[in-house]
Specification:
The chain is of the alpha+beta class. It has helices at about 15-30, 55-65, and strands at about 5-10, 35-40, 45-50, 70.
C-alpha cells in the first residue's frame, strides 16, 4: 500500500451521464471503487486513489472520452 496516492484533477465531467461515459475507462485503470467525481464542486473534481496509475494515464483516458482534465497541484 505504500504506492497509494490520491490524485486530484479539475474536469468538466458534470453529470451522471458524463460519469457513465468515463467509468469504463477509469475503472480499467484504477478499479471501480477507487475514484469519484464531485459534481457539486464548481471545478468538478475527480479524485483517484492511484496505485500503479499515473497522472498521464488518467489524463489520456479522460481526454479519450472527450472531457477536459487538468492536474490540481496540491
Amino acid at each position: 500500500m505504500d504506492n497509494m496516492k490520491i490524485l486530484a484533477f479539475k474536469t468538466n465531467i458534470n453529470c451522471s451521464g458524463c460519469i457513465a461515459a468515463v467509468k469504463p475507462l477509469i475503472d480499467s485503470l484504477a478499479g471501480h471503487d477507487k475514484w469519484k467525481v464531485d459534481t457539486e464542486n464548481k471545478d468538478k473534481i475527480l479524485t483517484v486513489e492511484a496505485e500503479g496509475v499515473t497522472e498521464k494515464q488518467l489524463i489520456e483516458v479522460v481526454q479519450q472520452a472527450g472531457y477536459k482534465i487538468e492536474i490540481i497541484n496540491s
